[in-house]
């Protein structure tokens, strides 16, 4: 069946559909009928608009949600900077205390450690990225690793961008303003910019990857000649239903990630008091096992874009600020074809991670679950020597690859820089990546016997006039 067999059973109900206009009430009658902003809301609630795009964005791009809540989100004390010496997730050239390391080397990281001493907020480690959230341009790539629940009287949001969370270990029980979401390995979750949430850990310590999108929002890729379905289908995305707390007597701490830095404010009511909501700006999750793969059924190897789950396009159609691509279990049947990915240099930057199993294009053991690799703009890469040798001689019968495996890629048209933490402080960069992967490749070229090698030269003779106007 095209669903993951999760160890931890589902505990919540959801609304189905990607970018659908949903409405949800925890108490019947909480939402107004036929209008947006009544003079008096039902049950003494406050009406609040949450906008994910400009008011005047085109209708097909416009994202907004109306929240009917016990107290407005603005009812808090002023924000104050927190942990200014240690919490810096914006090392760009203008605002951060560190700079991006822009390097052409292929990089690979050993599995990142689990830190059981921190909660979600303090587990965020920026590894790589490009651009600047203050001008809503680019993206950041994070590793998270936590062992503690967030304090029950706290919440967190990022004003910098949308979080695409790829869980590798453990489970995330996420209480958001709009409802609750359970995220398990092989599921992803997107929490849009500004939405407040709290993370608890029902299955012990957690670890995973985050792509923070500083500009725009994720959409489903266009299908072109594929037709109307396959890849990630619209109905398989799940959004929470309204669920609220009622507490106006305890003090809560609201954490904000703003321009890459941490701020905190106090308030005397729960942030999770939304009784009802309607709109198309909300968190959602997706089971990667539901991805309907397509591929070649004759010969040659399609581009990896056929495995794109979500995309965030630049202002040039077909060129992404960020693509989220997966490599799930799938059948290969191509005839006369080298089946793993070819050797290539790409104008896109490719950051890869492994949730579980073994990636079929890297079988040497160096690319491990909870590890990562980065092949930046025009950095040459491809199958390691062992994978190439094996695939070159393999019997080309129908075969299933990626069994019990799930690799993924964050791909971007931007040149991705690496942070000081990602390059040195984490102490996970593999020094022998090239030596293990490609240095062992040997030349296999054999000059054909009895054949004159022209190398583009006419050997001093007059060129063939039939090639006019290019003859000499």
From TrEMBL:
UniProt pathway annotation: Amino-acid degradation; L-phenylalanine degradation; acetoacetate and fumarate from L-phenylalanine: step 4/6
Metal-binding found in the keyword field: yes
Cofactor(s) listed in the protein's UniProt record: Fe cation
One annotated GO molecular function: homogentisate 1,2-dioxygenase activity
Enzyme kind, highest EC tier: oxidoreductase
Positions bound to homogentisate: 359, 381
Active site location: 301 (proton acceptor)
SUPFAM superfamilies recorded: RmlC-like cupins (SSF51182)
Record protein name field: homogentisate 1,2-dioxygenase
């Amino acid at each position: 069946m095209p669903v993951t067999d999760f160890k931890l059973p589902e505990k919540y109900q959801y609304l189905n559909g990607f970018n659908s206009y949903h409405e949800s009430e925890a108490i019947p009658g909480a939402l107004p009928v036929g209008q947006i902003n009544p003079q008096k809301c039902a049950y003494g609630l406050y009406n609040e608009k949450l906008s994910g795009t400009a008011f005047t964005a085109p209708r097909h791009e416009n994202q907004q949600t109306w929240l009917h809540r016990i107290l407005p989100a603005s009812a808090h004390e002023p924000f104050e900077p927190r942990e200014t010496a240690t919490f810096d997730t914006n090392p760009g050239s203008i605002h951060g205390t560190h700079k991006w390391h822009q390097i052409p080397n292929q990089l690979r990281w050993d599995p990142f450690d689990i830190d059981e001493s921190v909660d979600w907020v303090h587990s965020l480690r920026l590894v790589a990225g490009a651009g600047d959230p203050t001008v809503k341009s680019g993206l950041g790539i994070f590793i998270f690793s936590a062992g503690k629940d967030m304090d029950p009287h706290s919440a967190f949001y990022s004003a910098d961008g949308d979080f695409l969370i790829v869980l590798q270990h453990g489970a995330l029980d996420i209480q958001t303003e709009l409802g609750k979401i359970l995220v398990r390995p092989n599921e992803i979750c997107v929490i849009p910019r500004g939405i407040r949430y709290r993370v608890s850990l029902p299955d012990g310590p957690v670890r995973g990857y985050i792509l923070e999108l500083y500009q725009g929002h994720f959409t489903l890729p266009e299908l072109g000649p594929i037709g109307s379905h396959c890849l990630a289908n619209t109905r398989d995305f799940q959004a929470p239903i309204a669920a609220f707390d009622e507490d106006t007597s305890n003090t809560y701490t609201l954490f904000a990630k703003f321009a890459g830095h941490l701020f905190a404010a106090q308030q005397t009511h729960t942030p999770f008091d939304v009784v009802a909501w309607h709109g198309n700006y909300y968190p959602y999750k997706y089971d990667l096992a539901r991805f309907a793969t397509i591929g070649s059924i004759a010969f040659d190897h399609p581009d990896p874009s056929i495995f794109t789950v979500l995309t965030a396009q630049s202002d040039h159609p077909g060129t992404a600020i960020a693509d989220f691509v997966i490599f799930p279990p799938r059948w290969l049947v191509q005839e006369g074809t080298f089946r793993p990915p070819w050797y290539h240099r790409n104008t896109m930057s490719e950051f890869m991670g492994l949730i579980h199993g073994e990636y079929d294009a890297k079988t040497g053991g160096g690319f491990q679950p909870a590890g990562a690799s980065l092949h930046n703009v025009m950095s040459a890469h491809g199958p390691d020597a062992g994978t190439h040798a094996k695939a070159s001689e393999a019997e080309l019968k129908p075969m299933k690859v990626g069994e019990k495996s799930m690799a993924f890629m964050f791909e971007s048209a931007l040149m991705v820089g690496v942070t000081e933490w990602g390059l040195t402080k984490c102490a996970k960069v593999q020094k022998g990546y090239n030596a293990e992967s490609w240095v062992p490749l040997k030349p296999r070229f054999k000059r054909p016997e009895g054949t004159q090698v022209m190398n583009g030269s006419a050997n001093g003779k007059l060129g063939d006039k039939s090639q006019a106007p290019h003859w000499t």
